[in-house]
């Protein structure tokens, strides 16, 4: 078995598939044999087949051994998947309606999981609201994130490339948009990225990696906020700047102007003033000052 999560899952799948095919073709062979051997032309008078103790023992013992073999193979793979190798890179996976975020040892939180190639990685998964399903098809990983508890998974990052991260548990109206990317970089490029240097992650190229729209996309803002005026889990971004907004602050209802100060507070401390009619569901942001300035500039342009 390959010493990776992919190898463990694929190995169990191939083993069970091989036994299933063996049983399938064995049954087909038996059906054809008895149909030919005991056809009417050869047996015009039906004959009685006496029971055989040995045959009865065999058809109990053989299926039992096959079932136990599949169970033990699956159990071995399960234990392998539940025990990350020593020295694995530690990453915390945060889930919420409807976005993933990934926290590293230095406290940085990013919208996509960035890893170095050929490195074991331990994932500790949490949920801020409801149950979500962390699923990376390319790495054969599916683990639920549960409010109030921590679950874990691990993987060995393969060659550089990009893989999809999805949610497999229906978690609300924007469940289908709860996606992220697993981005594997060469070790040198990952070291540069972790050090804060500019590295091409292959993310949104247009309208530019530093633009507000690209930030909205990579930070999963558009999972809750629309750009066309339609209502979502959060208020729409369309025509927001300069409008009067009814908010709740400290249990009191206020009417404030959506100016630069309001927008900066709403982005950096989303629970301070919650728009009337909406829940306090937005998590604290990990955006840099430059990214926040870019977003505010976008609102000022009246998009």
Estimate nothing, just give the exact number of structural domains: 3
CATH superfamily of the largest domain: Cupredoxins -  blue copper proteins
Q: What is the topology, as strand order, of the major beta sheet?
A: 3-2-1-5-8
- Name the shape in a single word: elongated
- Tell me the fraction of residues in β-strands, as a range: 15-25%
What's the CATH first level of the largest domain? Mainly Beta
Number of helices: 6
The end-to-end distance, rounded to whole angstroms, is: 54 Å
CATH architecture descriptor name of the largest domain: Sandwich
Protein structure class = alpha+beta
- Main beta sheet, described? 5 strands, mixed
Mean pLDDT: 84
Proportion in helices: 25-40%
H and E order: HHEEEEEEEEEEHHEEHEH
Number of strands: 13
Question: Would you spell out the secondary-structure blueprint of this structure?
Answer:
Elements: H1 5-37, H2 53-82, E1 89-96, E2 99-103, E3 109-110, E4 113-116, E5 120-127, E6 132-136, E7 141-145, E8 151-156, E9 161-167, E10 180-185, H3 187-194, H4 212-218, E11 244-249, E12 252-257, H5 260-268, E13 274-275, H6 289-300
């Amino acid at each position: 078995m390959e010493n990776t999560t992919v190898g463990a899952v694929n190995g169990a799948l191939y083993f069970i598939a091989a036994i299933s095919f063996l049983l399938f073709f064995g049954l087909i062979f038996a059906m054809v044999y008895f149909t030919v051997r005991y056809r009417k032309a050869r047996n015009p008078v039906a004959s009685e087949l006496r029971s055989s103790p040995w045959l009865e023992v065999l058809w109990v013992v053989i299926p039992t051994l096959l079932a136990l073999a599949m169970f033990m193979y699956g159990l071995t793979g399960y234990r392998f998947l539940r025990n990350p190798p020593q020295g694995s890179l530690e990453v915390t996976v945060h889930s919420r309606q409807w976005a993933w975020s990934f926290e590293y040892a230095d406290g940085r939180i990013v919208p996509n999981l960035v890893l170095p190639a050929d490195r074991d990685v331990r994932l500790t998964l949490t949920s801020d609201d409801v149950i979500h399903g962390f699923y990376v098809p390319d790495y054969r990983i599916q683990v639920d994130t549960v409010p109030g508890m921590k679950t874990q998974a691990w993987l060995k990052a393969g060659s550089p490339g990009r893989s999809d991260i999805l949610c497999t548990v229906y978690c609300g109206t924007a469940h289908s948009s709860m996606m992220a990317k697993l981005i594997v970089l060469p070790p040198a490029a990952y070291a540069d990225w972790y050090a804060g240097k500019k590295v091409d992650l292959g993310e949104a190229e247009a309208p530019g990696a530093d633009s507000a729209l690209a930030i909205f996309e990579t930070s999963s803002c558009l999972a809750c906020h629309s750009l066309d005026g339609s209502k979502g889990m959060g208020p729409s971004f369309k025509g927001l700047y300069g409008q009067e907004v009814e908010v709740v602050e400290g249990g009191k209802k206020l009417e404030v102007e959506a100016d630069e100060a309001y927008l900066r507070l709403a982005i950096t401390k989303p629970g301070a003033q919650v728009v009337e009619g909406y829940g306090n569901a937005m998590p604290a942001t990990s955006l840099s000052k430059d990214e926040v300035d870019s977003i505010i500039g976008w609102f000022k342009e009246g998009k």
